[in-house]
Amino acid sequence: MLKAGVLGAGHLGKIHLRLLNQSNKYELAGFFDPDKDYALKVAEEFGYHLFDSVEDLINHVDVVDIVTPTLNHFDCAVAAVEKGKHIFIEKPITKTVEEAQSLRDLVKKNGVRGQVGHVERFNPAFTAVKDQISEPMFIESHRLAEFNPRGTDVPVVLDLMIHDIDIILSVVKSKVKAVHASGVSVISDTPDIANARIEFENGCVANLTASRISLKNMRKSRFFQKDAYISVDFLEKKSEVVRMKDVPENPDEYAMILQNAEGVKKQIYFENPKIENNNAILDELETFAVAIQNNTKPIVSLEEGTEALRVAQLIIDNF
Q1: All domains in the chain, ordered by first residue
Q2: What Pfam families does the database record attribute to this sequence (predicted)?
Q3: Neighbour count for residue 176 (Cβ, 10 Å)
Q4: pLDDT at 151
């Protein structure tokens, strides 16, 4: 088992602590949080070992799980990697693309593994259909959230939209050609609502909307490709695949058939893939353990985390 320690014991950090403590792939060594009074309460309530410093934790583990504010990601990661420790780092990977690139080089130099916490890659609604998403040409994503003061220190693009940016980059096998965006600050000092249009070199277009001041929560993406439409509801954990195929010689009398202006007929088929319930955060942590043990590429590599941040920054720069 890999010894793991968590840096940061806030809302998400406590979830990571609980799951690492339950996992059969890790041995939880403990955690560190700079808020001493708060950290002592967490240690007392849950029985986790509290380290005296970041350095103390790093010296006692194989894997450092970084769940600190984004501002601290780079310094914590560098300290861990320079000691030869593997790093799991929450999204966004770092504050700047330059930091991310520097971290990638350092990880490679020290021969360790790194994974970024883009948890929606492990959402069962997405994993149920991701292999069926092939060369999408139009993508539409909506990620709307009710207001929560936590996270408003960064633009909504880095807080929410980056989830969908990563998902889209994982299925579109083409380079980004152009980005157009707009953002509006309503409550925070940074944009609370944003819309972005990403154009890829292969002709695919993705339209993304994110808001953190909505009246209801929504996390949906739709993928359009030749002869197929795939819908993913990340919040409700539901997927639907609608396919169009050539009409058979003797179609069922209840078959749904479309005919275009040229007289070509297509039959529509509806599929609702079986969704396997899971804990996405536990899955991302445990697949990272497998990547370390097998010396294989993590599912969300530092390179992919860097590219998601780069595109997010392009969107912000276009406001």
Answers
A1: 2-112 (3.40.50.720), 121-279+312-317 (3.30.360.10)
A2: GFO_IDH_MocA, GFO_IDH_MocA_C3
A3: 19
A4: 63
